[in-house]
């Protein structure tokens, strides 16, 4: 069973280009959206959600906030003073002014209508430079109370309900711990379009929390998920530029049309997971990236070359098989058919015409489709044919000729 992706740390995906790549790979993607939260999605997110049903909303489950809150409560109980010294709010600042919001008594503020977040913005983008926010539906009431009493948090009312304001490091660590727990209990795979200090795959035990927040653990937790990075780099080898200009409807069409090839590619990526897991131990990000490029060259680029040679061989064998057939075909048909099997124009003569006209519909088309479906990178080959900007533009010009 293929895992569903779980997007974090925000509610709205910030990078639509990344979103299209994710839609080309994951069977579905969930996001933590509090009940009643008014989504301000981009056109791409809306289409993938409301129209295609690929982007699905998951209300933050109360059990997750309770369970994840326990080690944080213990951390506050045992290290409250240290936490306050490092991450506490300034004295007398429990009622924090938030840019775009008007302060009112008792740690609660009401937004001015003109300053509500614009589409695709959230309260975290309105935060001051020294604190950040997490929606109150993602935090247990006990943890909110303890954090406020310790001077680590405040509560404000903003777009979509109540928000808990804390030091950015606390919000970052808490969000990653919450997502990790929800993902583990629901067989979800955490994914993000952000470069984060920490990840949702760090094993957020009490000891880990204390080490990261109060100990000597590095402030940056390092690399993105190796498997995710592998997939996106593989996609970039066949769709290097211009994906942001590809309509999201085309992305949905490709997913639907080439589902078998996509399944084969997912299985292939899973087979590479053991090798990719070893990359997480590489300390420096620059070295990690070089190893990743090497893995893509080995596991993807070479496979694509092999598939191209196999398809060319299929075309040549078809030509040989019917090379003695005498046939006349329009030059345009000959050229088109020769291009379809990957043949050089230099050999697109009468034998090629015979092969293309007589054998293509029956023989090499069937063999080509079989070769692509059987290849672990057949899906990438399809993406190159369907989404490569130059080829896409050429198809668009043929579909809508100048008048």
Descriptive account of the structure:
- The protein is of the alpha/beta class and 403 residues long.
- The protein has 16 helices and nine strands.
- The strands form three sheets. The protein has a four-stranded parallel β-sheet with strand order 3-2-1-9. The protein has a three-stranded antiparallel β-sheet with strand order 6-8-7.
- The radius of gyration is 27 Å and the shape is elongated.
- It starts with a strand and ends with a helix.
- 34% of the residues are buried.
Highlighted features:
single chain; about 400 residues; alpha/beta; 3-stranded antiparallel β-sheet; elongated; disordered C terminus
The span between the termini is 50 Å
Number of helices: 16
The fraction of residues assigned to DSSP E strands is: 5-15%
Number of strands: 9
The backbone outline, from C-alpha atoms, is: elongated
The whole-number mean of residue pLDDT values reads 76
Assign the structural class, choosing from mainly alpha, mainly beta, alpha/beta, alpha+beta, or little secondary structure. Answer: alpha/beta
Q: What series of H and E elements makes up the topology?
A: EHEHEHEEEHEEHEHHHHHHHHHHH
Gyration radius over CA: 27 Å
Main β-sheet: number of strands, strand sense, barrel status? 4 strands, parallel
The percent range for helix content is 40-55%
Which parts are unreliable, with pLDDT below 50 for 5 consecutive residues or more? 91-129, 318-330, 353-360, 392-403
- Please give the order of strands in the largest beta sheet: 3-2-1-9
């Amino acid at each position: 069973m293929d895992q569903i992706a779980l997007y974090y740390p925000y509610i709205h995906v910030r990078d639509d280009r990344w979103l299209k790549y994710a839609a080309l790979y994951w069977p579905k993607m969930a996001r933590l959206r509090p009940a009643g939260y008014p989504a301000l999605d981009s056109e791409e997110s809306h289409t993938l959600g409301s129209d295609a049903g690929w982007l699905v909303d998951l209300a933050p489950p109360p059990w997750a906030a309770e369970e994840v809150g326990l080690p944080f409560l213990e951390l506050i109980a045992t290290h409250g003073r240290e936490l306050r010294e490092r991450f506490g709010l300034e004295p007398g600042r429990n009622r924090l002014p938030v840019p775009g919001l008007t302060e009112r008594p008792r740690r609660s503020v009401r937004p001015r209508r003109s300053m509500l977040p614009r589409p695709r913005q959230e309260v975290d983008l309105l935060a001051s430079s020294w604190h950040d926010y997490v929606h109150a539906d993602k935090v247990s009431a006990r943890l909110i109370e303890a954090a406020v009493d310790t001077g680590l948090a405040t509560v404000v009312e903003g777009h979509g309900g109540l928000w808990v304001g804390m030091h950015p490091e606390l919000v970052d660590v808490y969000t990653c711990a919450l997502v990790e727990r929800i993902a583990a209990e629901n067989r979800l795979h955490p994914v993000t379009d952000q470069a984060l200090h920490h990840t949702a795959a760090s094993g957020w035990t009490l000891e880990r929390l204390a080490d990261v927040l109060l100990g000597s653990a590095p402030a940056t937790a390092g690399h993105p998920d190796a498997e995710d990075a592998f997939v996106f780099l593989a996609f970039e080898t066949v769709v290097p530029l211009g994906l942001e200009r590809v309509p999201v409807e085309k992305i949905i069409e490709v997913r639907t049309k080439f589902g078998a090839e996509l399944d084969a590619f997912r299985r292939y990526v899973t087979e590479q997971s053991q090798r990719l897991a070893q990359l997480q131990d590489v300390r420096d990000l620059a070295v990690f990236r070089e190893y990743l490029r090497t893995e893509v060259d080995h596991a993807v680029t070479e496979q694509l070359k092999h598939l191209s040679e196999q398809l060319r061989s299929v075309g040549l064998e078809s030509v040989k098989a019917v090379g003695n057939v005498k046939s006349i075909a329009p030059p345009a048909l000959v050229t088109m058919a020769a291009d379809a099997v990957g043949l050089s124009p230099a050999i697109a003569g009468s034998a090629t015409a015979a092969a293309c006209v007589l054998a293509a519909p029956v023989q090499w088309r069937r063999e080509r489709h079989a070769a692509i479906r059987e290849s672990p990178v057949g899906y990438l080959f399809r993406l190159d044919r369907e989404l490569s900007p130059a080829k896409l533009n050429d198809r668009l010009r043929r579909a809508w000729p100048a008048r």
